[in-house]
Amino acid sequence: MDEFSRIETFFAPLAAEAGLNLKDDAAVLAPPPGRELVFTVDQMLEAVHFFSDDDPALIARKLLRRNLSDLAAMGAVPLGYLLTTALPKRVDEAWLEAFAKGLGQDQAEFGIGLLGGDSSSACTDIALSATLIGHVAPGQALQRSGARAGDGIFVTGTIGDAVLGLEVRRGKLADPTGFLRRRSELPAPRVGLALAGIVNAAIDISDGLVQDLGHLCRAAGLQATINAQQVPASAEAAALGDAVLEQRLTGGDDYELLLAVAPENEAALRAACGAVPVTRIGSFQPGEGVVVLGADGEPMALSGAGWKHF
Known about the structure:
The protein contains 9 helices and 10 strands. The chain has helices at about 5-10, 55-75, 95-110, 160-170, 180-185, 210-220, 235-240, 245-250, 265-275, and strands at about 35-45, 75-85, 115-120, 125-135, 150-155, 200-205, 220-225, 255-260, 280-285, 290-295. The strands form 2 sheets. The chain has a 6-stranded mixed β-sheet, sandwiched between helices.
């Protein structure tokens, strides 16, 4: 199939109204009245972010969910997305059909539509990117820079499952229930939490808890101290014990939220999160950098903070 046949067959059925059936060079999008737009873009590259034999539907869904997690960290409501694909000739119609099916599944789940994008060929590996568009009330976008001394440090969900799931996929760990593998292949972005006015700063955990917490510290000019034993673990991760603790703290790809919250707002945070688990793991104070305390109360020496892109 040529480029236009692919678009008409697999992607035009996914188009939102603003995407004009993907027959024009750009979308025409009106933001909801009285709202500000929030944009984020992320890419996934074969052999870097996914394996060649991964399910195309899961690749598509993770591509969207990585970006949806960025919107969640800004407190934004998802609106739609732009998609780019660079595909080698070996990618067949069955792969594209499954990929488009995955996009459709998450469009329905998260209430978004395809607005447009670009399609190209690739010499060797698959390259994908998605630009997600969301909206917030004016001045209410959560940022990394708002943490204050005395704020508690909170995380949603459990931390470290995705990096352990990657070890499962590499054949280095057993995963009888399939839970860890699933967490690696399909994160759960925490969209829809009404955190404006409750949270002082936020980021999603993509590159590792310690590294992403360091971003909040640098943006606010503060130090963070966390207790490693308080970092929430799933039952599957907890069963592996302290042998995987450093991996859990630095592995990344969890796409949980990392939040700075004043003590007086803790109850409001828990109410806003509802059924989403939220755990306090430390606090901010004057200084710089991230201090991780072990079970003995002493700072842990970590071999690294998280994923390095270069």
